[in-house]
Amino acid sequence: MIIAATASLATVAVKYTTALLSDNEVSAGNTFAAGAIDLKIDNHSYYNGALSASTTWELADLDDGNGPSGEGKYLFFNFHDLKPGDWGEDTISVHVKDNDAWACTLIQLTTDDDTSSTEPELSDGDVTDTADLWDGELAHNLNFIFWADDGDNVLEEGERLMIEPTSLASLTEPGLAGTHTAGLVLAQSNYNAFTNNPNDPLIGGKDYYIGKAWCFGTMTLHPVPAGTNNNPTIDPGIKCDGSGLNNLTQTDTITGNVIFTALQSRHVPSYRCPGTL
């Protein structure tokens, strides 16, 4: 017996999935952006122990036209009726935004003028007023001191002096365009006035305080104990005596500018403030 079997062949489709190895790396939003330095200044000023509103302001750009003095100016000195024995004290805050920087101050006198010659002046040996803008005696009798302050408007024991008591005339020397100038280092490559260290720029975003005091007469220093007094209306740490002056300074006028500059410290390893003492 023959057994016969019939088979039906069917076509079967098989789908193959092939896995391909891959990797994808994306660096998106690449940017170069220039940095910035923005120098801002504030000042708290006292005249004969009372707050001076026309020479006091909060942190600002000094050219924004919003100052407290006339025409929106920011003036560190705005005193028009000085008498021997008058004195003033300021604490200036210097704030460099965003980047570390070297920083300098330039005091630039534009006149020291004897604007007229009164009879008392002539009696004390003055000469008749001339067209000379530098024939005054006031700058010789205004004495200044600068120090690294802690922000309380008071000269305290242990605070570092930037400039010893010196007359404004002695501080300044003939400069450009008929001016007399004096430079004050805040931070340059070999010296930082606040830390006394080399290679130490002002840190971006940190406040630094400059104390300054002036006296129309003889100034003596009497620093108060640190941390015991922060009120310049009680004791600023200086004394002023105008008893030794005569009438030679009557009607004299000093005018000038105070200029602050800041320069990036990175990539500028050897920087000196121009016109410094």
Q: Which features does this protein show?
A:
single chain; mainly beta; seven-stranded antiparallel sheet; 5% helix; elongated; disordered N terminus
Structure notes:
It is a single chain. The chain is mainly beta. It has one domain (38-264). It has 3 helices and 14 strands. Strands 1, 2, 3, 4, 6, 7 and 11 form a 7-stranded antiparallel β-sheet that branches. Strands 5, 8, 9, 10 and 14 form a 5-stranded antiparallel β-sheet that branches. Strand 8 (173-174) and strand 9 form a beta hairpin. It starts with 37 loop residues before the first strand and ends in a 13-residue tail after the last strand. Mean pLDDT is 88; it is low at 1-12.
Q: Please, what is the oligomeric state?
A: single chain
β-strand amount: 35-45%
Classify the secondary structure makeup into a structural class.
mainly beta
- What composes the largest sheet? 7 strands, antiparallel
Low confidence ranges: 1-12
Radius of gyration: 34 Å
- Name the helicity range: under 10%
The count of domains is 1
Summarize the structure.
5% of the residues lie in helices and 36% in strands. The protein has three helices and 14 strands.
Topology:
Layout: E1 38-47, E2 50-51, E3 57-60, E4 87-97, E5 101-114, H1 119-123, H2 138-141, E6 142-149, E7 161-167, H3 168-171, E8 173-174, E9 180-188, E10 191-192, E11 207-216, E12 218-221, E13 238-241, E14 252-264
Antiparallel strand pairs: 1-2, 1-3, 1-4, 4-11, 5-9, 5-14, 6-7, 6-11, 8-9, 9-10, 12-13
